[in-house]
Amino acid sequence: MITETPVIDKIILGDNQFWGVNHLSQDKGKETEKKFRSIEEIRSLLHTALDNGVSGVMFSTHPMIYSITDMMRADARLKESMHIYVNVPYIVKYVRMASEMGMLKSVQTVFGGQGILGSAAFLASSAYGALTNDYLSLTNRLIDIEMNPFHDLKVKAIFLHNALTDLAIGYGMSDVLRSFYDYVGNTYHAIPAFGTLNFPALDELLAQANIGPTVIMTAVNKNGFLMNPSRQACEKSIATSKNVVLAMATLASGSLKPEEAYAYLGSLSRVDHVVVGVSTKEHAEQSFSTVRKYLV
Amino acid sequence: MKKKIGLIGVGKMGILHGALFNRLPNVEVVAMADTSPFVVKIFRSVLPSVAFYSSYEKMLEEKRVDAVIISTPSFSHVPIALRAIAHDVDVFIEKPLSHTLVSAKDLHAAAKQRQIISMVGYCLRYIPTFAKAREMVQNGAIGKVVRVEADMFISDVLAPQHGWRYDPQKSGGGVVMDFGVHMIDLLYWFFGRPETVSATTKKLFSERVEDEATISFSFANALEAHMQTSWSSAEHRKSYSKMKIIGDAGEIIVTDQTLRITDAHGHVTDDSYAHMYRGYYFDIGGPHYSVQAQRFAEAIESRVNPEADLEAALVVQYLVDSIYRSAATRASVPLYL
Fold this sequence. Notes:
By secondary structure, chain A is α/β, with parallel strands linked by helices. Chain A is built from 15 helices and 8 strands.
């Protein structure tokens, strides 16, 4: 069990711009996607980050992730120096699958291979028997599938996606969080971490279940965007938390200017780590220097 | 005493609703029912405190629940809800209410007789931008509304699909019934009941249900609303919903993310979802689901139906039925209730 406080990069490059995700506007997201389509541009941006002393990058397991990780493995500097933070699973894929095929078929497809015969064989096998007693071992297999693209790269932390963490909190399923924490720590020798939009509730559940200290990625911004139940409650809980807070959504989906956004983060004594989304080299250099001004 | 909730249909939406209800102070999820033994086994292993059933009938008989969340495929909503009502259990039903108008009418009548509390999952009403836009329209911020243009798009169907949604016997229809119905509910919530409906529908990838529709609603006092919906819009990776509301003293353009009001002098004010977000008791898939759960929990306590009750959902069901009749007859259809 990890008892000391985990150490992560102060500034971590976000990957939303790689995939065209923008929470404020789909149109804006699409523009960014076009700009970032080429792997060469992503490579160049990662090098710019390293040149600026930023050696962390956050990835979701987007269907296109292999094109990026293959590029990184082939690039000696990125392979050696970039710390990777992975957010699992890629939730959009599974939500869509569940809508299209229902829960049962989705589970069969994910765990039993794509073919119908494969699924049938899987269900007939002892795995199905084991499943009835130990569903959590199945989720471990899901983590393995999601982590495949990152082999031979320096994975620093693996985050359970905020949607799953928050569902687990909703049902008070600390066993699920515990299972994730133990499996990631033991199997990947990476920091088992959690995303959430409900920081105080997660912090409390982790403390009750005696999990951590770990890293919690959560929204922190002056507008209180995605901070629940309120900005004040999150600030209060962050101030006394044993966990390391990794701030995301710091610009509140583009509604805050970087200067005021990072000044606010700087005013919170327990927020020293941040995910920064950047789209161009100039933007990256500017953002990193603004962050450094307030978070030292 | 906390109100006891039973979850029927442990799928994507059911799991989400259950978690949100569970976080509310006055309710707890005590039972779950699903016809798949596999799903029941999985969830039983991680939720030891919840009673699991493979039959909802058995759950209703054995477990004294105060309310149920019905998040099964829509063709089973009415039979399940009727059984719940027979036990005097309140119902939260996922959208669409049902696959047929006839069954929706039966349910509405039964619920009225037993005085149960009902709510249907037309959740766009609780998206902050839409809620604010409605408030502005009602306060006369853009004067008298004369025309509305509404869009609802997603890219879910870009090839032939399988499953109950694409079988009209089970789903009752395609994109209008399954997805566009959210916008139909919004239009009804904003502007009341239309007098006539005319619509055309188109199949692109699906063989038996429509993938696109163009709909016109005519309201009293000369208000016209035109709506387009498609689940085969490749460029919309995520659900996209937009209303342009034109009044005689300005206009509002509202999406699930942004709100722009232009007054009679051309002065523009912009607002956004991110800016309106104020903190919710718990957020998993967006605050609209949280607010929806809160409203239902309040309603089963206060015994006053929420706005999006069976009464409202029945009007929406009439509208969907009128849309399909208009598309089939290629004629404008008056809305008879």
